[in-house]
Structures
1.
Amino acid sequence: MKLGINIDHIATLREARKINEPSPLEAIFVLKNAGAAHITLHLREDRRHIHDNDLQAIIANSPLPINLECATSEEIIALACELKPQQVTLVPEKRQEVTTEGGLNLKSPKLQETIQKLQDSGIITSLFIDPNLPSIEQSLALGVRHIELHTGEWANLNLMASSNLKHTQHKITSLDFPYPILQDKICNTLKQIQECAILGEREGLEVCAGHGLNYQNVKPIAQIPQIRELNIGHSIIARAIFVGLFEAIREMQSIINESI
Ligand code: PXP
């Protein structure tokens, strides 16, 4: 199973000071040496972390393939078509959200047109979707060959069941259930992700997964054989503060390898 690393939060740290360190581009060479398969970065409409010149410099100099995440914003899609990363993953985006909260609205009229523009530019196009069976069918109808299953619900349920999040100011109030209910929901969510991966693969899709995956919750997802690739960002960058980026990636890679 391949590991793609999302480097947005290296830029988040840089933007905390608005200077030139840490450099997302420099990080890519560490990522490559640690065994990452590709780099993911999200050019958000508010440019809160990655900026246009990061994208330009990274595409021009990266020794690893680039997966650009972005919304169906005309301006950003035009930039993607010009700079040509190997892949674009279309994601929904709300200005006020802290991170991407759900999968794409696959019925949005703009989506088909955006997919066409990217595919005409020779860019592999993937859709970030909620893990349910209709989303797989709709993705197929939209003519993509790649999907990424949103694991955010899986991650949030696990945080509420097995970490101290429930007792902090960041408690997820919509998931504030007693432990046995959380356990049921965790089982059902995993089953849904598994079913989507099976159907996706059977229909010829390249199935990836990501969002909120961390050292505690990645194993059951990595054990789904139909998932070819995981995209992980925040937990690895957070762990890197304690053990360094290289080691943080190696630790994640070894959990994934042991799960297979
Ligand atoms: N995949 C997609 C499509 C995302 O939007 C994100 C977050 O930008 C990730 C994966 C990585 O999520 P996390 O940083 O929670 O690992």
2.
Amino acid sequence: MSRVARLAALLEEPLLVIGLPGIEAGQAGVRYLTGLASSNSAVLVEPDGQATLYTDFRYLHRARALGVADVVETPRGLVGALGEILRGRRIGVEAEHVPYAAVRTLEEAGVDVVPRTGLVESLRAVKDEDELAAIRRAAALSDEVFAALSRERFSGRSELELVWWVERSFREAGAGIAFGTIVAAGPTGASPHAEPGERTIEPGVLVTVDAGCVVDGYCSDCTRTFAVGEVSERLRELYALCLDAQLAGLAAVAPGAHGRDVDAASRAPIEVVGLGSAYGHGLGHGVGLQVHEAPVLRPESSDVLEPGNVVTVEPGLYLPEEGIGLRIEDLVLVTEDGCERLTRFPKELLTVA
Ligand code: ZN
Ligand code: ZN
């Protein structure tokens, strides 16, 4: 069944999926349903499976070539035009991805707007063969780049130099960049979403590298932590603890598992040694057209895993008072009986020069 048909089967009223400039989730929804990559388009899916794609002149030719929906040209002011077209109708919109101003415009034009959540996301969370093939290619390229990175000299170079090295490697292989690459040495790594800077990397520290590429629209996401030269026993112990947590998380990933339980499994080894407060973020997130999507693995998650989900498993330890941070992240596919690692670069503590 087509993606549009599967969405239609979930609908009580027509759903308008709007991809506006800056609203990545809406754009990903339009792309998922129609194949159109655009920063100004919308698709209206009717409960009977009819789909109409609205976009402006810049995307018209590509939209028509897709052949998956009726295409209607709108002016650049897409939402105003949709208000005119849909006046008097009861229409669902994605409450989490449509700006308030756009809802107001539709309502003022006389559209009866119904807020809906999670419909397209629930479909996107289960990857089909083509999506999985793209994610596998992205993960394989990520493995190659991490392997090449591990042969590079770290000491004496800045975090930003290595960021550029990683991103250039992805680009040279024909891929895009999924998110701003993180290279975080020593104290920089004590912040989970570290801001790489001009800090020169010195021997004796850990360096966390979190990087992802985009292949055919689909993202990879992988983190490895490297030791620069000889590191202290303390750093080795913390690394071993983080790896225990990561393996416990991987072992808990299975169809039917609750996101919060998988998260808890990874937390247990860290809490046992009293470092629970150093692991302050969730275990993982779904990855696909977006680098953060459904389902999520964290303490408040109500998601239940199913075969075809692609999620990250990424515990970390952050001790700012000691200037220490580390994280280990794999991208995995939920299978019929557990999970398959898509990122396969080794996870024992690797020493770089
Ligand atoms: Zn990551
Ligand atoms: Zn991640």
